[in-house]
Every structure is written in structure tokens, then in C-alpha cells.
UniProtKB/TrEMBL annotation:
Signal peptide: none annotated. It comes from the Bacteria. Pfam families: HTH_3. SUPFAM superfamilies: lambda repressor-like DNA-binding domains (SSF47413). InterPro entries: Cro/C1-type_HTH (IPR001387), Lambda_DNA-bd_dom_sf (IPR010982). This is Helix-turn-helix domain-containing protein. Coiled coil: none annotated. Residues 44-78 form the HTH cro/C1-type domain.
């Protein structure tokens, strides 16, 4: 099986999720080990993982779901590059240019990205509440 645009895009998302993961999986061998510790089916080989990362092959749906859970991302995003919006509708993830951000803000963004999806949701909710509280205070 050769490399296709879909396989290449999956490989890029997998590498991105690995880089942002709090689990600190930095090598293909570590990914194989961590994956096989959690997977109840036939263990994956280092060659299979190398093909995932090189964009030569994609894992099956059950493996994608486990990878997503391990890395704290949605399986829909990992598989297709689509994130679900607040009302459950699919949205394409877009690169966000951070203009005029301070060094501290960029550092916080980096830390935020390493959080699990659940933790990111909690932080987002807290920020929304603080922003509402600040707006209410300034209007009074």
C-alpha cells in the first residue's frame, strides 16, 4: 500500500497528537509499548506503527479510538481532521495565528495543548466564567 493524501494527513495528526500528549511518547518504540499495554487485541508491531507515522498505512477504527483516548484527542479528529463544535456539528480545525501574543501567553497555549480534552474543557469553562464575571464587574 502506498502513501495517499488521507494516510499522510492521518500520520501528521498522529505526530501532532503525540507531540502535544501529556504522556510524553517520543519514539515509535514507546508508542508500540504504550499502545500494546492498553490494546486487548493482537499486539501491533513496530513496523505497523512506523507505517502509521510515515503515512503508508492507517490503523483500524478500534486502534484509532484507543490512540485517541491515549493521546487525549477525539477519534473523529484523529481519523478525519474534523473537530466537533459546541452543538455537535463537525468543524474543520483551522490554524490560529496568534498575533501580538506575549511570551507568557504562548507558554500557556503550549501547556493548554498538552492537557487532555476533558481538562481543556474545564479550563475553557473557567475562562468563560472569569470573562463573564469581569464583564459584569466592569458594567456595574
Amino acid at each position: 500500500m502506498g502513501q495517499t493524501a488521507e494516510k499522510s494527513a492521518f500520520a501528521e495528526r498522529l505526530r501532532l497528537a503525540l507531540g502535544r500528549s501529556a504522556k510524553r511518547i517520543s519514539t515509535p518504540a514507546e508508542l508500540v509499548r504504550q499502545f500494546n499495554l492498553r490494546y486487548t487485541g493482537k499486539p501491533v508491531s513496530p513496523q505497523a506503527v512506523q507505517k502509521w507515522l510515515a503515512g503508508e498505512n492507517r490503523p483500524t477504527q478500534d486502534k484509532i479510538e484507543l490512540l485517541a483516548k491515549m493521546l487525549g484527542v477525539s477519534s473523529i479528529w484523529l481519523q478525519f481532521g474534523i473537530e466537533q463544535g459546541p452543538n455537535g456539528t463537525p468543524q474543520r480545525i483551522k490554524d490560529i495565528a496568534v498575533k501580538d501574543a506575549t511570551e507568557e501567553e504562548l507558554r500557556l497555549i503550549g501547556r493548554y495543548r498538552r492537557l487532555s480534552a476533558y481538562q481543556q474543557e474545564l479550563v475553557s469553562g473557567l475562562i468563560e466564567q472569569l470573562a463573564l464575571s469581569a464583564n459584569t464587574s466592569s458594567e456595574a
